[in-house]
Design a protein that fits this description.
Shape: flat
Helix content: 40-55%
Number of helices: 6
Bound molecules: zinc ion
CATH architecture of one domain: 2-Layer Sandwich
Number of strands: 9
CATH superfamily of one domain: Metalloproteases ("zincins"), catalytic domain
Distance between the termini: 26 Å
Radius of gyration: 21 Å
Length: about 200
Amino acid sequence: MPDTTLMVVVPRSGSIDPEKAISAKLDWISAELERMNAVKAILGDDKVMFGGSYLSIAFEKSGNEILIPDFTKGRLVVRATDISRRREMIRRWFIKESSAYVVRKVSEFAPIAGASPSGVDVREIAKWGYCTRTGRLSFSWQLIALPDRLKEYVVWHELTHLHVFDHSAAFRKALSKVCPDFKQREHELDLILPYKLPVS
Ligand SMILES: [Zn+2]
């Protein structure tokens, strides 16, 4: 759960009535609270997001390391010698699945966007995706966790950068041609919290 403590700082002089200040900002406060409560983390202690839905993580101690997703039961069985292996196993699974997804989706979408990237890969990056000046597209290893419509948005966004490198009005115009509701999808994407890898 995010920290939803509301802190109000007023000058000592007493020139501002805290109650009045709060009521004047009430719409903003409730909207912000709603947003914070809507934020979903990709990886929690006992659950992981995959394709926009959560799978509960069931750990089983075993000498043979294996990860078995069971989508009908909404769970992910992780067999390993130690529970601390869980994150690393999920990370490898995500990289494999995200890589297969971006290769497939970029080849499907690129002709529609009239774009031809020089290469596509998945990396451990903090952003959902980026595009180099040489036309190479890189995507986050956590992409596979997102719902389809958001994964697709990220692919459309990076493909559009092959036409317009910045985020100017021309970029948004080009993006809206292939993804008309991109603003809504950006808003939904803002509510998803990627797992931050520990800095090593
Ligand atoms: Zn961009």
